[in-house]
User: Which sequence fits this backbone?
């Protein structure tokens, strides 16, 4: 990618902003797509603005998942301390879910993250443990690895 940055005047904001124009290149070096980002902090570098936007989108995914799956909006607390605890618990749960799915995988590997899939897999894991505790089946035998993975992935959304 190529990053170009300049201080420009924003008519809508009625102030100067730092504009970051990013050209995303394909493997041959040709421009594939372009995007523009800006910051009201005119001291920031173009790379810092791009990194801030990327981090922002990751935070938005965390809020989205917390709202949909961990009950971020389902609190009836009135005191500031209880609301603070509830928000932290919901956001932490979403972050821990992401860590569970990423566990054992290389950081360079792209991961399609879904709390719904994680919930399904954890439910299947508990059900499998229950079945194995009732019947005399050894889950640690190497031959059972593929079958256990099939059971854990049962019901997941195909990404």
Assistant:
């Amino acid at each position: 990618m190529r990053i170009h940055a300049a201080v420009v005047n924003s008519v809508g904001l009625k102030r100067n902003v730092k504009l970051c124009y990013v050209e995303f290149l394909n493997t041959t070096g040709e421009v594939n797509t372009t995007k523009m980002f800006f910051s009201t902090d005119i001291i920031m570098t173009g790379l810092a603005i791009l990194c801030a936007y990327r981090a922002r989108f990751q935070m938005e995914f965390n809020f989205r998942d917390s709202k949909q799956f961990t009950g971020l909006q389902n609190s009836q607390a009135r005191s500031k301390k209880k609301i603070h605890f509830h928000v932290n618990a919901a956001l932490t749960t979403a972050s821990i879910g992401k860590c569970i799915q990423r566990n054992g995988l290389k950081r360079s590997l792209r991961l399609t993250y879904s709390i719904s899939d994680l919930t399904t897999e954890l439910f299947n894991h508990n059900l499998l443990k229950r079945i194995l505790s009732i019947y005399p089946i050894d889950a640690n035998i190497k031959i059972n690895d593929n079958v256990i993975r099939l059971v854990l992935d049962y019901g997941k959304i195909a990404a």
About this structure: The beta strands are 2-10, 15-25, 31-39.
